[in-house]
Amino acid sequence: MELNHVYTTAKRCRVCEKLRTQFDRSNIIGLPMPINPAEIEFQEGMAAVSSLYFPMSELQLVAPPLRPTILLRVTARQNSGHESRNNPKYKIADNPGWVEIDPSSNMLRLTGKQKELASEEVKISARDKSRNTVHMKVNVTILSSMDVKKLCEENPQALCFWPRVQYQVYENSIPTLLGPLGPSYLQDLCPEYIISYQLISMDDFVQILNGSLWSKANLDRDTTQKTRSENVTGEINLSGPKVQAQIQCSVKRENDVSTYNKTVNVTVLDVNDNTPRPTIEGPQTLYLDNQGFIPKDYVLERLIFIDNDTKEVNVHRVSILEDEMKLWRINCNEVSHINITGFNDSVSTCTLRANYSMQFDPKKTYRLVVQMNDTSMVQGDKPSHDLQISSLLIETS
Fold first, then answer.
1. Which CATH superfamily groups domain 48-269?
2. What is the distance between the alpha carbons of residues 313 and 50, in angstroms, rounded to a whole number?
3. pTM here?
4. Pick the residue with more confidence: 335 or 280?
5. Cβ(225)–Cβ(205) below 8 Å
6. Which fold has domain 3-30+273-396?
């Protein structure tokens, strides 16, 4: 039996055709049919998404031996950007014995027992009263006494930036303190040097205050195209999933000034703030051949919905409406997808199958509505229920 598609309000687009071809070839098997075959919910990853996170998720640093040293303050934040109000408890797993967290200030510090050339990956966890748990990794290398003596004269660049750091922030957050740009405790070893920073690029998205990197409030992981702003003349770029900021560090000693540039990466984390949408807008008219007879388990149509958010944050519910004869059931499968702008979104393929054999009346037109509802969308701090509907008109030929 052949099935000819006539789309009444929308033309085929190249991206939609490419997606349809990819999923047809992949032979994706739908989810098992639930108790109610007309309505299913698939929650691929919400349990993995926590409202708690470390703005500095990974850090590599060097430190002097045999002296107590305050490294930095560790802070877990909520995905809105606020410091967590649930009083998270910080803990070091497999503590080597010479590093600790001050419970009153959350300062990560060395006790003074660290020996020369010691190296350790310190795993820090934060757990709040809601039992959200997040982790931060800090790779600590202890310098030799000789390296400390040479530091100020031969390697002043080490005073500017961490050897390696990963900053991250949730999109749509308030301006958020991400963390210090470099090790201020090393600057204390070289008091004759004055360190200052200048942001060379990406000042729409980040800023530097008192030697620390802050995000700004206009970060949008899901959008990279230019958009107009009421507060800015002309056009500005939205951030996309990663901000790469060029930062210049100046090291001044008396009348001598040396400058060092570094690209600092900030990952923009996903918030579920987009609705799913069908790849073909408007009602689709389907003509059934063979006098309108369909057998049981006949595949009527394979619908594709795209959501600009990642699979891990979505909770989609799909339903069939206006199917008075309960003829159809729907199975959906959601997969991660890299879109044409290079960042991850999600694609859901939904397959309509007949529950039983049916002879359609050639004189009648049947209407079927497929509704996909994202039940976990967030607007501000409140969830919302947003619908996207794909309408099918079925006629016999």
1. Immunoglobulins (2.60.40.10)
2. 10
3. 0.78
4. 335
5. no
6. Immunoglobulin-like (2.60.40)
